[in-house]
Amino acid sequence: MRELERLAAERAKEAVKYDKLGMKAEAVANYREAIKLLLKLIKFTEDPILRRVYEEKIIEYKERMDALLGGEVETFQPQSKTQGKESYLITDPPPVKWEDIVGLDEAKKAIRECIVYPSLRPEFFPLGWPRGILFFGPPGCGKTMLAAAAANEIDAVFMQVDASTVMSKWLGESEKNIAALFDEARRYEREGRPVIILIDEVDSLTTYRENEVGGEARARNQLLKEMDGLQDKGRTPRIYVIAATNKPWLLDEPFIRRFQKRIYIPLPSYENRLKMFKHYTRRLELDNDVDFEELAKITEGYSGADIYQICMEAQLKVVSEFFEKYQGEKPRKITMEDFREILRRVKPSISPESLKKLEEWARKFSSN
Predict the structure, then answer these.
(1) Domain 81-267+354-365: which CATH number of 3.40.50.2020, 3.40.50.2300, 3.40.50.300, 3.40.50.12780
(2) Domain 2-70 carries which CATH code?
(3) Per-domain residue ranges of the chain
(4) Which of 34, 60, 290, 307 could form a disulfide with 11 if both were Cys (CB 3.0 to 4.6 A apart)?
(5) Cβ pair 213, 12 in contact under 8 A
């Protein structure tokens, strides 16, 4: 794998070099070799994020190669800097409040300490406060909801980034995308608005060096540079970076050090699963035999998103029956057997092996 990655990176760099020089035949030959190596990498990797990066590069190298062969372009033309804005969204955060998030009390406390309290009374923090927060844990456990609740609490500009979309096919463009993101954040902050940048799947930007193909190293270095820039001497800009990952073991140590708070977002406990079932079914018609305590017991290992899906499946089941049979004026009530049937089909979304790795990483690096 490492040798294939190294060779693919070399071919891609050679292709771009010849492309810039206008040497079409040499550029095409190197693009073709890079594509062959990336296809082999896809066969050998099980990491979905890396597969996506490899697949996107294959598509885009093919497009460039076809353009050169078709004579559509004369010389290499990288994307414009403004194109980086396509890689992130400036939007109103989802209307999430603290009370909408079941459990996660330690994570909520850390968010308040790092973001909410400094925004309310910055004079109480003469030494500054953490501007980098890493959420790690199983998927579907509330990482995005926590970031949205924090943004709503302080009326922040919410900039949501899918890190895998930041990566660009042309060398040098990924770091420009990241620089454009932080430039925009600083503009809002200078206008008096706090900014929360949520970077999802951050491991696709900061994965170990042996996984690099193309501009990943420069993208990671640019992100680290921007993070360092938030620690301005004599000034505490209200720009917060919340990074989220399901695979923290892929992060390198220089990146980890930039995040003073590293918060484990675990699977919900029995008590929180009980609260979730009550919360998600509060507007559903339930039969008296529905036992929330039993449901909470038999869903150990399920994420919050899994439990939401179970409740939604139960609703869909009775509504589908109503439309198919047209018996009565409204759907029947959801029974305990409906839930049991769904649970026979819907399994936990995280494997025990992945959960074990997350817990081991939490013991080493968690700071909450």
Answers:
(1) 3.40.50.300
(2) 1.20.58.80
(3) 2-70, 81-267+354-365, 270-349
(4) 34
(5) yes
Which of residues 342 and 28 earns the better pLDDT score? Answer: 342
> Residue with structure tokens 């992945």?
354
Q: How far apart are CA 277 and CA 279, in angstroms?
A: 5
CATH number of 270-349: 1.10.8.60
CB neighbours of residue 14 within 10 Å:
17
DSSP 8-state class, residue 172:
T
Distance of alpha carbon 208 from alpha carbon 25, whole angstroms: 33
Task: Give, rounded to a whole angstrom, the gap between the first and last alpha carbons of the chain.
Answer: 35
Please say if the pLDDT value at position 360 is more than 90. Answer: yes
Rounded to an integer, what distance in angstroms lies between the CA atom of residue 145 and that of residue 163?
18
Of 341, 43, 356, 88, nearest to 198 by C-alpha is 88
Residue 314 half-sphere exposure toward CB, CA atoms < 13 A:
28
pTM (2 d.p.): 0.70
How high is the pLDDT of residue 284? Answer: 93
81-91 burial, b at 16+ Cβ within 10 Å, e below that, comes to eeebeebbeee
pLDDT higher than 50, residue 77:
no
Tell me the pLDDT tens digit for each residue of 214-230.
555 667 778 888 888 77
DSSP assignment string, 230-275: TS-TT----EEEEEEES-GGGS-HHHHHT-SEEEE-----HHHHHH
